Amino acid sequence: MKFKLDGIARYIPILMIALIFGVLLGLQWKSPPARSTAVPGFEHESGFLAINRLEAEQGELKENIGRMREQLDEYRRELAANTEMLKEISAELERQKMMAGLLAVEGPGIQVTLDDSSIRSGAADSNEYLIHEYDLRDVVNLLWLAGSEAIAINDERIVATTSIYCVGSTVMVNDTRLSPPYLIQAVGNSITQEDVLRNPGYLKEIKQRAELYGVQFMVNRIGILTIPAYKGGFPIHYARLGE
Amino acid sequence: MKSRSAQLLLTIICFILGLLLVAQFRTQRMASESILSASSADQLIIISSLVENNAHLREEMEALEGQRDEYQRATGRAVLEALVEELNKVRIVNGLVEVSGSGVEVSLDGPIGVLDVQDLINELRNAGAEALTINGERLTLYSLIASTEDGVMIVSGTKLSRPYVLQAIGQPETMEAALLRSGGLIATLERNYEGLAVSVIKRERMVLPVYKGAVEFVYASPAE
After folding, report:
1. Do A160 and B67 touch (CB under 8 A)?
2. Which end of chain A has less neighbouring CB within 10 Å, N or C?
3. What residues of B are in contact with residue A188 (Cβ under 8 Å)?
4. CATH for B85-208, among 3.30.1050.10, 1.10.287.3510, 3.40.710.10, 3.30.70.1880?
5. How do residues A63-98 score in pLDDT, each as one tens digit?
6. CB within 8 A of B205, min separation 6: which ones?
7. What pLDDT digit, counting tens, does each position of A198-208 carry?
8. Which residue of B18, B94, B224 is in closest CB contact with A21?
9. Cα–Cα distance, B74 to B67 (Å, whole number)
10. Which residue from A140, A107, A91 is spatially nearest to B217, judged by alpha carbons?
11. Which of B14, B115, B215 sits opposite A22 (nearest CB)?
12. Is B106 helix (H, G, I), strand (E, B) or coil?
């Protein structure tokens, strides 16, 4: 056995060499190109680059989308806040417009009719037979005193900037020409309004001229009046808010 | 000889073994390399899915941008600003804010009736007064101007004492000219009231306080 082993051991180096030689030869034998299964015309390297590029793009897009969503959330909150503010401002504006006479209103009230006398000339001054702008002014002032909430003369709404004046014999209200008969309508407590208008202590001149010269002065309580909105503008050029 | 041929045989066997070993190794390498090369096809799949995904992302981004544009429009800062401006204007008209500006100051020293003061206010409004006060009381549409039996003027419940000083914000020259024209209201007043001294002073800047009264609508409601 020992001899035999010795005999085999003697061959081992040769065997090893043969083995290595075989391995080297085998290595030397070139395998067919491994790319045979690859897609024709497709470069492995450029594919890898494309993936990198696309992934970078994807990352950027995702980041942008994330940022945009955050921005949108902010807009949404702002919109909600602004909508809330818009609601408040709109409501406040409605109140203010109501006060300013920019809204048509309705309610119970009184109607005062003033007209020149049918008698055009007589013994007295011709002015005594006519209704003047100051008559209208006095009636309007008295109607405010009687608690009126909205007043119009011949559908011209009386507002803060309204002046009742005359050019020659033509009465102007809100720079609009009016002609008789003058219908003054005022929403308010019609009982109070009528009481005040009929009070002999007020509008003495008109009442006297009505009696003596036939100018018309009529007072009627009305169930529901509609007072139109002021249609002009409020030119504010000199007044500034606050100090 | 016998041992030599055995030696040769062994050598050949080892040689073939070596070849087989390499072949085996190569087959394995080839297999793993074929996965690698097959990933070229996978690469295409990956690329196409990435392209598709990125297209979706871009679509999403465009949709979001569209939303943003809409929000920017909808948050309506411009609308809000316009509303606030309008509101402020109407507030000035209603006398509910303090205002400042140029104008005239009219002083009435002496006896004068309440109706004539109202005529003067009317005249100032006609000359473009934007805001008015009398003795520091802001005058609005709803200011009640009355007088007691003995001729003391009451504005919005406050008794005024003479001299009556009216302040009006507006174009100073226009208002002054309207008041002082010959045959105008002041000339008429001075003719009608003996002992009434009227002065009109142009002011570059006055500050008018807010209206103190409250306005409540009990009978009037917005018409349909």
Report:
1. no
2. N
3. 219-220
4. 3.30.70.1880
5. 999 999 998 888 888 888 888 888 899 999 999 999
6. B100, B101, B102
7. 999 999 999 99
8. B18
9. 10
10. A107
11. B14
12. strand
State the complex-level ipTM: 0.70
The confidence score (pLDDT) of residue B27 equals 59
Nearest Cβ partner for B7 among A14, A65, A160: A14
> Which stretches does DSSP call E strand in A3-102?
none
Sequence-distant (≥ 6) Cβ neighbours of residue A196 within 8 angstroms: A142, A143, A145, A146, A202
- Answer whether B186's CB lies under 8 Å from B140's CB: no
How far apart CA B141 and CA A96 sit, in angstroms, is: 12
Instruction: Give the three-class secondary structure for B85.
Output: helix
pLDDT: which is higher, B15 or B105: B105
Distant-in-sequence, close-in-space partners of A219: CB < 8 Å, separation ≥ 6? A110, A111, A112, A194, A197, A198
Contact A156, A206 (CB under 8 A): no
Residue in B37, B58, B144 closest to A145 by CB: B144
Q: What is the pLDDT of residue B111?
A: 87
Q: Is A225 within 8 Å of B159 (Cβ atoms)? A: no
Q: How far is B107 from chain A (nearest CA, A)?
A: 20
Cα B195 from chain centroid (whole Å)? 53
State the Cα–Cα distance between residues B183 and B181, nearest whole angstrom: 6
Its pTM stands at 0.71
Q: Which residues contact B98 (CB under 8 A, 6 or more apart)?
A: A241, A242, A243, B207, B208, B209, B210
Interface probe, candidates B14, B16, B148, B171, chain A, greatest A C-beta count within 10 A? B14
* Structural tokens at position B56: 């979706």
Q: Tens digit of pLDDT for each residue in A88-126? A: 999 999 999 999 999 999 999 999 999 998 886 666 777
Q: Between 3.30.750.24, 2.60.40.3080, 3.40.50.300, 3.30.70.1880, what CATH number should domain A101-227 receive?
A: 3.30.70.1880
